[in-house]
Specification:
Layout (H helix, E strand, L loop, with lengths): L3 H7 L2 H19 L3 E4 L4 H14 L8 E5 L5 H14 L3 E5 H7 L15 H12 L3 E3 L16 E4 L27 E4 L7 H11 L10 E8 L2 E4 L2 E2 L5 E2 L9 E6 L12 E2 L5 H10 L19 H6 L4
Parallel strand pairs: 1-2, 1-4, 2-3, 4-6
Antiparallel strand pairs: 5-6, 7-8, 7-11, 9-10, 11-12
Amino acid sequence: MTTHTSKQQALSHLDWLESEAIYILREVAGQCSNPVLLFSGGKDSLCILRLAEKAFRPGRFPFPLMHIDTGHNYKEVIDFRDQRAAELGERLIVRSVEDSMRRGTVVLKSADESRNKHQSVTLLEAIEEFGFDCCIGGARRDEEKARAKERIMSFRDEFGQWDPKNQRPELWNLYNARSHKGENIRAFPISNWTEMDVWQYIEREKLALPSIYFAHQRDVVMRGGSIVPVNVPLVNGDIANPAKAGEDIINMQVRFRTVGDISCTAPVLSDADSIEKIVLETATSTITERGATRLDDQTSDASMEQRKKEGYF
């Protein structure tokens, strides 16, 4: 006869993380009246989708999916986003930074300025448009020091702002997602996961991914010690991040560890063309996931903590 203790011991660390995340998703559904799941097509949000399937299927998700598109996202990821939402039969809301630019609520300093930080404006506009009281995101504490300060249920005031010194205690896995009208919660079901956990979960669940997560040939230049993709085709047929005069374009075999706006997401040299190889590469890497791959994290005026205080994910 199998005892309760032996059953617990048989659970892997991924089972425990999965169980916690499913519990958090159900808490959001139970406590919030109008939540939304932020879905970009990236690896972390794909894990959240699988967790939502396990939490709520065979019924529909108790929330729509939403992506804040900069207009300068990788075509491979946008195509995959649309394909995955269609396969699930779930509603996908897309709001673009370009819409905010047309309204005049976002003004770029220059045509080539990164649009990544301006997603905060578009997100807050979408929250107000639909009256969302909770946004479920795929942020993890191991990604960046500001994200390590987040609660699972991270409170935002009526202006959509985050104050790291004004967060609710979370004792004994008791989560408080209550908010007054105009306020909202950012819920992070995989906050306690690491990059390795994500890749091991993807491997275990056999999740499909956008092709740019795997090793491929790409035109790049070297800027400030980072590998920067250039002349990248967009969904609308335009070209993003053109090479600058005097730059030597090199065709390298690279892959992306994290994916965001083209202007601020750098790949890494890699020959990992399968999930198994990515797991091994992640285990042996001495560089953090965002350390050399998210160029916007490396400038003080666009630091993650400052962006989060202004309403960022």
